[in-house]
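hey can u check if this looks right to u? its 103 residues, i copy pasted from the old doc so theres a chance i mangled smth
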Amino acid sequence: MSNLKMYILVKDSIPGGKAVVGVAHASLACYLKFANDHTVKQWLDGPFYKTVCLVNEKEFEKAKSESDRVVMTESTLDHQETVIAFKPREEYPKYFKFFRLYK
């Protein structure tokens, strides 16, 4: 069984309703961007885990330096960057383990 997982990071300053929509858009945008990737096809065979976390501005900016990701913006928030989704993978940088889960 695969341990592939998509991490989705949401800025903690984003209102709840906008955050939920951003997560949905980011998940789909990430899938579409990497749909032809072998790892993504393997992830889709299941289980296709996703971990959604709240991050502060500094954590968000640091995570943007990682590869294979999409960054979403919200037009109703002056096109502010709100959510990052990462192509599914088995291992992430260790600092990802310290992000707060979105509840």
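The chain has one domain: 5-101.
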